[in-house]
Amino acid sequence: MRPARMNKIRAVILDEKVDPVIRQLHESGLVELYDLSTKLEDPEWNALMLPAPSAEYGRNVASLTIKVSRILDLFSNVSVGEKAGLSGVLNPKVPAKKKLSFSSSEEITSYIENVLESVEGEISEPASKLAELENRKTILETLKDSVKYLSGFDLDLKFLGEGSYTYIVSGLVSQENMSELESSLEEATEGYVEIVKGNPVNKSEKEQKIPVIVATLKQCADVVGAELRKSGFERLDIANVEGTPSEIFNDTEKELLGIENETKAILEKLNALSQKWTDEVLVLHEVLEIEKERAEAYSMTGKTERTHLIEAWTPKKHVKKVQEIIESASEGYAVVEVSEPDEPVERIPVMLDNAKAVKPFEMLTEMYAPPKYNEIDPTMMIMPGFLIFYGIMLTDAVYGLLLTLAGLVLWTRMGKVSSGAYNLGYILTLSGLSTVFFGILTGGYLGDFMYQFLGMDIYTTGFALVNPLGESTYISAAKPLLSLGGIDVNNGPMAILLFSIVAGIIHLFIGLTVGLKESLSNGSVLDAFLNQGMWILLILAIVATVVTGNMMIAGGAVIAVIALCMIKGFMNGGILDALLGAMDITGFLGNVLSYARLLALCLATGGLAMAVNIMAKLLGDAVPVIGILIAVVMLVFGHAFNFVMNGLGSFIHSLRLHYVEFFGQYYEGGGKKFSPFKAKREYTSN
Amino acid sequence: MVFENPLLLGAIGAGLAVGIAGLGSGIGAGITGASGAGVVAEDPNKFGTAIVFQALPQTQGLYGFLVAILILFVFKSAPEWAMLAAGIGTGLAGLSAIGQGIASAAGLGAVAEDDGIFGKAMVFSVLPETQAIYGLLVAILLLVGVFASPGVTTIAALGAGLAVGFAGLSGIGQGITAAGAIGATARDPDAMGKGLVLAVMPETFAIFGLLIAILIMLGIMF
């Protein structure tokens, strides 16, 4: 019920033997390294040893990582890739793990360099060709764009630019600047200028531009250039071509087409190469990532002239194994010391330690906050309550079946590659089964589908225990379940409400009992009594009242609790707090009444399903011929919507009852999660 | 009987249930939707998340719709004032959707920054729905005929509906607190527990409303 007990391991290891120790600890994933760098700032420690730098091979690893990443980038760019598709998402392939084991960084580096050499040998030529083609393509496309504006001119473009005596330039001028430009050029060159205008083109929606070719004498080039710039002349950069614009245009198009075909061929080739090598390169990438983590781990250790000091947290049950690993990896050149946690509790990492059947529910605990090291782990207690509440709130056998199937897919298929999907799938599968159970109990099969369409009222048969909307064979005005203080529990809603409140009181009682135990072990008896004890007595008093029918017991208990709350408030902070303390009783009442949502949400699912059925039936009866079709569509979409909405709602409201009402009695949370120093292996195995 | 056809008051109740709750849900979903549009503009992959958060404030409208259907089709023979009160209670409590919309918008914003906070943001965003659930609860209790006291059969029933309905507006305040708490939790995940305590405070008033409604229905008055 508590997080795993931790030990601190301290090892002094000879320099030469540190690397194998770090490697093997990393593979085992049993420890969380303790960062010594802050401790080593302390002068007393500092006199003994210095913080160690990252391992030297880290630099090598970094440069190899860059190379490998570049290849992966290229592969992901060229892969035309078969789409993963729905079946791929629902049933992902687990990559085959490649078995690799190395004993030193040199081995890894040489292995990676070897593989890289053969990969690069095959891809470098097509890759550079691809880059070249892409380059040429951009050049041609700009040229094509420029030449397009000049399509109206019949001029060999090789004359553009500076000739022996002339200077010819082409470009675009906006329409309103045209006449001004003409006159200013005329003036600046004393008439030695020729301007040929083409047909106006729309460059963007707003402005029309006129393509022009301006020819002048070589010695006027500078003044012409200045005038052109002034008028907002947009020069078209065309050089090293020959032929009329339309000829060039056609030529470029032809060449572009050729490039496209060539690119396609190369892409195909690269794609084939990527299919061949991607897995291998991913392996390299993973090996490098792991290696990088190891190199960085050094910086958490301390260093003397010939030794390293490593400190690490490990769960008590793994201490022996860790000790063995260190001793065997260092071949005995190590001193290992195991000690109880010597840090304040909030610094001790927390590892939840539950049985396999409960473990996925740790997700729900951690969503709130992992427990503190010395706090109780509530996961075990969440599980039954969560499932029961979920089932009651969704209560529909068909929805439950759907949820179970969805959960199974998530759990057994997608769960193979994602631990989040595994946990959620497991929780949903169990929630689905619980929903089926409560659905059968309350006769919910797509709401009242059977009654609306088959005319069969399940509540007049013996197949449903309670009818959330009225009477059933077992609970009716003729056969009341029981009578409480003048109210007969003689129909479904009342029975479920009674159940909800009782379940709530039991739930709170469990929480309070756990809290009482915690308070007693941590603090004074008085605190335990004021925080949990008196509420437990209040619940007991209410139970006694119900059993004996004597209202005095509950009344007395309520008055006593109010008085105690005021005393507690007064002890904490005077008169004002005492008055506020009197309100605590409404908080308690609120907690109990909050469980009434079980009834409301149970009815919301069944009621909305019924609304869908009623509407489908109305549509089916009202519209001739295609009515049935519309009714079926209405049913499918309506129920899908209701299922998703209420499935989600039940999940969160079930969680809420735990987080707010249940945890409020005993749980605080806020521990630091144990994060093991562990090699993440997806494509490789050791 | 005030009217020859008792369903007349019921029809008004059904209309108010769908109408007011729909108003709340519309505004709430609108607030979340605006946040969603911003998030999706930044990252189109977040569309699904945005839809999930936007679904939360829509439940109030569904509860209103549900109560309307119950009044018109299932509990046609319930006391007339009870039908009206059920509609008014569910409708007004449905305005908590405005608060839920504010909380959901904040939740969505936090998730857009950090996917890991999805579950926590969800829990906070669903808090202001309690008020609507209490409204639904009182509506059902009024309709199923468990109580036959004057608190259900006379105009006093309206008091029950108004109590749970107006107290349900505390959902707006709760939504605002929840939005703040989501921001705090996004910054420091350990703040969740304390944030929940603060965010649950405004619910006290909804519980007062529920309590008074139950007392009226039980006929414990005067």
Automatic annotation (TrEMBL), chain B:
Signal peptide: none annotated. GO terms for biological process: proton motive force-driven ATP synthesis. Its EC number is 3.6.3.14. Residues 12-71, 84-142, 158-216 form the V-ATPase proteolipid subunit C-like domain. GO terms for cellular component: proton-transporting ATP synthase complex; proton-transporting two-sector ATPase complex, proton-transporting domain. One of its GO terms (molecular function) is hydrolase activity. The chain crosses the membrane at residues 60-78, 90-112, 132-148, 155-176, 196-220. The keyword Lipoprotein does not apply. It is a multi-pass membrane protein. InterPro entries: ATP_synth_F0_csu (IPR000454), ATP_synth_F0_csu_sf (IPR038662), ATPase_proteolipid_c-like_dom (IPR002379), F/V-ATP_Csub_sf (IPR035921). Keywords: Hydrolase, Ion transport, Membrane, Transmembrane, Transmembrane helix, Transport. It is found in: Membrane. It comes from the Archaea. Belongs to the V-ATPase proteolipid subunit family. This is A1A0 ATPase, subunit K.
